[in-house]
Design brief:
The chain is about 65% helix and about 0% strand. The protein is mainly α. The chain has one domain: lambda repressor-like DNA-binding domains (434 Repressor (Amino-terminal Domain)), CATH 1.10.260.40. The longest helix has 15 residues. The relative contact order is 0.19. Keywords: DNA-binding, Transcription, Transcription regulation. This is Helix-turn-helix transcriptional regulator.
């Protein structure tokens, strides 16, 4: 049996960062979804960590936010954003 990790999974890190960056940029889920060519429901599921997102769709969302995908996978992104 696999033990639960104390750290968030990459999917949950991405979900948390996506939501926070979207909110910081004052974008609705619908606006972000439209820019990325995805549905609002899909973006909602991704942000909740309920959707196992593909790397292609991660790239679309990062591009829609105008940032590198690697930043959305950075577990320390929120600390860096808060410090700036």
């Amino acid at each position: 049996m696999r033990k639960a990790s104390a750290q968030a999974t990459p999917r949950l890190v991405f979900a948390r960062n996506l939501r926070q960056v979207r909110r910081l940029r004052d974008l609705s889920q619908e606006a972000l979804a439209l820019q990325a060519g995805l549905s609002r429901t899909y973006v909602s599921e991704v942000e909740r960590g309920a959707r196992n997102i593909s790397i292609d769709n991660m790239g679309l969302l990062a591009e829609a936010l105008g940032m590198p995908l690697r930043d959305l996978l950075d577990a320390d992104l929120l600390k860096r954003l808060a410090a700036s």
